[in-house]
Design goal:
Strand content: 5-15%
Oligomer: single chain
Shape: rod-shaped
Number of helices: 3
């Protein structure tokens, strides 16, 4: 014989029809909220890691810049730095440019004030000599 089914009262059916979709909506909403919150949390943790790395890099840069500031207060360091990075030389010094392999590319004498003065004086003397020679030829 067959199983006897239990009759569900009409009030219970109405409640189930009315509250069932609401319960399903609440369950889906809670699940969606849980998933989106988890994704946001994961993204925030990744961003926190990146920002912490950036902060550590900036702190390291700040330390090296403070160190550089203290070094730049030393006149000998400034002179050596200018020689190495800007090819600044003392009178009579030569600069030897080298490529990455360490082979000599060329030897360059940097023009200093003394070199310029020699060229200017030589030009003036040459001009005076030409003037004297031309004036002497006109007298003949």
């Amino acid at each position: 014989m067959g199983k006897k089914r239990k009759k569900i009262p009409k009030k219970a059916k109405r409640r189930l029809i009315f509250l069932g979709p609401i319960a399903v909506f609440i369950i889906i909403y809670c699940g969606f909220t849980l998933v989106t919150t988890s994704i946001n949390l994961y993204n925030l943790q990744r961003e926190e890691k990146k920002l912490n790395e950036k902060l550590n890099n900036l702190k390291t840069d700040a330390k090296s810049l403070k160190n550089e500031i203290t070094k730049l207060q030393d006149k000998e360091y400034i002179a050596r730095y200018a020689r190495e990075n800007y090819l600044y030389t003392k009178d009579g010094e030569y600069v030897i440019k080298m490529d990455d392999d360490g082979k000599t590319v060329k030897k360059v004498k940097v023009n200093n004030k003394v070199d310029h003065m020699i060229y200017i004086c030589s030009g003036i003397i040459l001009f005076i000599l030409l003037f004297i020679i031309l004036k002497h030829r006109k007298k003949r």
